[in-house]
Amino acid sequence: MTAPVQGRLDDAVVVGGGAAGLCLAHWLSGTGTGVTLVEAPDGPLRPAERTWCYWEAGAGEFEEAVVASWERLRVRGPDGAVIESAPAPLRYRMVRSGPFERLVHSRLAASPAARVLRATAHEVRDAPYGAEVRCTTAGGQPLVLHGRRVFDSRPVRDTPPHRTLLLQHFRGWFVRTAVPRFDPGVADLMDFRVPQPGHGLAFGYVLPLAPDRALVEYTEFSRTPLTTDAYEAALLQYTGEVLRLGRFTVESAEQGAIPMTDARFPRRTGRAAFRIGAAGGATRPATGYTFAAVQRQSRAIATALRASSGVVPPPHGRRALAMDAVLLRALDTGRVDGPRFFTDLFRRVPMERLLRFLDGGSTPWEEFGIGLRTPVGPMLRTAAELPFLARRATGRSEESPR
């Protein structure tokens, strides 16, 4: 990878070295597209190592970065009832950002059409040849990058106008127990045996890495994140009173908040400037999952550019977003009980079909059948209400009586 050359005109400039930026740079370089990936220098703009999970059939493009996977998945109801299944051919996979970044960097280094630059991007704007990115290098020097197209994955500052806005907020511990406590063959997607908040829902999440090691998270869907102390207290309660882990050590921790909203994220910000990843609406509103969607969208963008198309395909279909908007609204108003809703859904729908639905891969007939297995009355009432609610550019959901 060479030093920056200000006169170079790339086919594409990708801003941001998170999952979306890395995925897109990888797929573009694989088609021979000249691409520059701009990553933030070491410092406060570079996020801490984080975990991405997704489900996929067969060996995927980034299998080398998968640190663990599970054939069997489990959901536990508030009363401890267990729903467990093997959603073959799908496997649940965990990717850590560090190994994923190193894998993609090694592939980009092998491509003569790709380069990675460390710089802070400040502005993306249209130019006669496409778009330009104004940056500052790690050494403090100004730098302008030129691309026929620019794909920006940096987080947006404000959520676009919406009717519902919840947060999926969490804190997780990577724990090591004194004696074996985990079954490495089964991942717990949702464990509702935790105290429920007054608004929204809460659950535990357990990804075993070995008989004595696991990622254990406490997660809430609600309007406001907790303090770190509150997350720690919830994790102590979950690991001690629910999981009964006994003595253990916390080797590392991670914390975050993911918007779950029916906001419409614009994919285009200029004539040749586009948003990708969570900034472009790749996060599935009803689940908070993003990684699989950015893979699909990255492949589609690479195919479109190879065909000289200026279209950036949406990460999710309209039908899926419409159904998610209804679910988010029903959860936010309290018309449906969150723990019971998800527990019943996993009990009544084959897990493989439900995961395909959550990934946007189900048929309309399958979606109709899944809809019949939800609380039909509250969901229909919510669907009838949504068209009459205004979208607001605020941090709160549009209010209405239950």
From TrEMBL:
What Pfam families has UniProt attached to this entry?
A: Lycopene_cycl (PF05834)
**Provenance organism:** Streptomyces atroolivaceus
- Classification via InterPro entries: FAD/NAD-bd_sf
In Swiss-Prot or TrEMBL terms, this protein is called Lycopene cyclase family protein
Q: Which domain of life is it from?
A: Bacteria
